[in-house]
Amino acid sequence: MVVDMHVHTMVSSLCSVIDPDELVRYALESGLDALCVTEHETLEGARVVKEIGRRHGFRVFEGYEAVAREGHVLVFGCGEEIRGVVPAERIVE
Fold it and tell me: Is the pTM of this model over 0.85?
């Protein structure tokens, strides 16, 4: 599988201007098998894109980018959003 594991959208990341519909269309046109949307400190964008992907038969994984004192950490498969700067150990737990 070819998966882009770190994508932001305009839904909840100020560093991105891509619309979720455009993102899914571009991913399909580019031959990607899936995306993992990892907005900053929230699952909101991932959930929006996942629904759009579902309508197009395209797989979207949910994730988010947590902020640790030691640096940014991509979090996958966790329904709890950790906000604010915390020790990396807390994110791993």
Answer: yes
SS3 label, residue 6? strand
Enter the tokens of residue 22: 């455009």
Burial of 65 (0-12, 13-18, 19+ CB in 10 A): middle
HEC-encoded secondary structure of 31-66 = CCCEEEEEEECCCHHHHHHHHHHHHCCCEEEEEEEE
pLDDT digits 0-9 by tens, 31-66? 999 999 999 999 999 999 999 999 999 999 999 999
Six-digit token pair at 85? 């700067």
Contact 15, 8 (CB under 8 A): yes
- Half-sphere CA count of 89, side-chain side, radius 13 A: 1
Separation of alpha carbons 85 and 11, rounded Å: 21
Residue 40 tokens read as 């900053």
The C-alpha atoms of residue 68 and residue 88 are separated, in whole angstroms, by 5
